[in-house]
Amino acid sequence: MFNIYTKEIEWGGRTLKLETGQIARQADGAVLATYGDTVVLCTAVGARSVKPGQDFFPLTVNYQEKTYAAGKIPGGFFKREARPSEKETLVSRLIDRPLRPLFADGYLNETQVICTVVSHDLENDPDIIAMIGASAALTISGLPFLGPIGGCRVGYKDGEYLLNPLMPDYPEMDLDLVLAGTHEGVLMVESEAQELSEEVMLGAVAFGHEQMMPVINAIIELAEECAKDPREIAPIDPAVAVVKEKLIAGGILDKFADAYGEQEKLQRQVNIAAVKAAALESLEGDEVSIAGGLFKKLEAQVVRGSILKTSMRIDGRNTKQVRPIVAEVGKLPLTHGSALFTRGETQALVTSTLGTGQDEQIIDQLDGSYREHFLLHYNFPPYSVGEAGFLRGPGRREIGHGKLAWRAIRPLLPTKEDFPYTMRVVSEITESNGSSSMATVCGASLALMDAGVPLGSPVAGIAMGLIKEGDDFAVLSDILGDEDHLGDMDFKVAGTVNGVTALQMDIKITSITQEIMKVALEQAHEGRQHILGEMSKALTSGREGVSEHAPRITTFSIPKEKIREVIGTGGKVIREITEETGAKIDIDDDGTIKVAAVDQEAGDAAVNWIKSIVAEPEVGVVYDGKVVRCVDFGAFVNFMGARDGLVHISELEDRRVGKVTEVVNEGDMVKVKCIGVERGGKVKLSMKRVNQETGEDLEANAEAE
């Protein structure tokens, strides 16, 4: 019934198995990829025809994690997987980016790749397995995919590179780098690093590219056994060449060159639109729709050719220049920290907010739940590019750009023990003409320092581009939006004066060489140092102390056995403290207490209240108390937090008292002296001994006078 084909290799100390022919047989390509005991089902399907009038390639990649893969049942009311998590979105992008450039020109059929995690051993991260499985599924599908690609994760610890480290080892590594590529070169890189040098980063990429070769060979061998016949791509309409010649004959290349001579973005867009509109007027019928698909290629020809010939770019810069930078902090009066970072026509208004442990984000994943105390959110409203659009929730792009900036900043953050705050950074992109994610890195660094967060060093980021024609290439520093759209590479590098903290690279051609990558890293290093210098004009380090608008957190410890007393039955006591003082209180299982309040007086009141609850009364010490109950044999006085003690009727006054209420009543404020603590914890108090001492002091003072 089944024609099963399997390929196994030993890779990184574990067995990688690719299997096809039994599951999902109606998909164009389906591969069950297994590494350790983590299993991902990867499928690829391409539509049989192109939608009329479509002039782009609609590829969708979906990575999804099923909770049953780790023996869990989903939370929530519906008890089923819902919208994609942040990790699922990020891994979907991770797989999409190296696959997209490898589909043949002219293939515009709607194509979908789905990677489903069906078993997770909590050691082998499914993202790499999904990427490899997706590559294998496409390679055997018969779709015009010019792969396969391979992928791997590279760690770095104690001066050595690690291939596909296990998930529990991630926190101990100085580098977490994921890359994908073909036999010829690298297509995609994503990484977080602990201020590593460019040489170490380049070495990691070279190491990873070498280690992925067995995987690529295994996929090729599997395809040789079971790949479907290649799909035919519809031949290019001869009319395309006719329309192209007609446009060129009409002088469109020179007109595009003049339009791109305008350095201001919005006016340049107006000029380009006018050139296109004039060109369309000279065409008839189907020629108009054909021309729409040719314009970008003609624009690219003009822009790319000019850069390679003259080394001068659209806005008049040379290949290494960074746009003018203006950095300001404290832009918003009531936020805990704020910064406005402007680089050319790209601008980010970034804020930082400090909260308590109650503000931490609880993240539930297949490998377990954890709390995150650093959040970074990136927003890209339509007005930032001069457009009117519908405001939606964050999409894949916003989540991806925010995570890149998060990776860039996180290695420099203080530990929770040294800085017990939850930190949220929000980047509002108010203008955009390329490199908005790197503007977010710069603005986030400044906003955090403005709030008083003691960053290890300021962090800056720069986006590099590439124009490559044959053997000629030019690496561009701080790319514009047009240079991104019409170029061959988007290579983002973030870091400090000491080294790289994050690196992300996407290639739009089949691959790049190590030589190009080395040039890009060196040029990015120069650009980053320049940007850090400009940022230092606004702020060189974190302010002394946190913002006056941020909560003050006081941390102290109490005995574990006292936690119950502070919380109270059903949380009654801690709720009362919070309501009375206005402070926020976090209690850890080890007895660590964090009290946060914007008002110092409120914070002190909460701290003193808690300390009074856990404190033990000392014999001979005088306390202020409140009479809470009168009985025949004495009065009960609340004198230490929730603790009461008994003043026996014989200890009320230095005389015989017939009735307790002759001396005190409920609600009276009194001074009491602790005269004993019984084995069961009952406290004996005295009022008369306080009075005796007070009288003795008065007599002594009188004699002294």
Please state how the strands of the largest beta sheet are arranged side by side. Answer: 8-7-9-10-21-20-18-19
Helix content range = 25-40%
Averaged pLDDT, please?
91
Q: How large is the radius of gyration?
A: 34 Å
Please give the number of β-strands: 29
Q: Which outline best applies?
A: elongated
Name the poorly predicted regions. Answer: 697-702
**Proportion of β residues?**
25-35%
Please report the number of helical segments.
16
Separation, N- and C-terminal Cα atoms? 113 Å
Oligomer: single chain
How would you describe what is shown here?
The protein has 705 residues and is α+β, with helices and mostly antiparallel strands. The protein is 32% helix and 29% strand. It is built from 16 helices and 29 strands. An 8-stranded antiparallel sheet has the order 8-7-9-10-21-20-18-19, with helices on both faces. Strands 1-2-3-4-6-5 form a 6-stranded mixed sheet. Helix 6 packs across helix 8. The longest helix has 25 residues. The protein is elongated.
Short description:
Its main location: cytoplasm. This protein is α+β, with helices and mostly antiparallel strands.
Q: What attributes does this structure have?
A:
single chain, 705 residues, eight-stranded antiparallel sheet, six-stranded mixed sheet, elongated, cytoplasm, ExoRNase_PH_dom2, polyribonucleotide nucleotidyltransferase activity, RNA-binding, magnesium
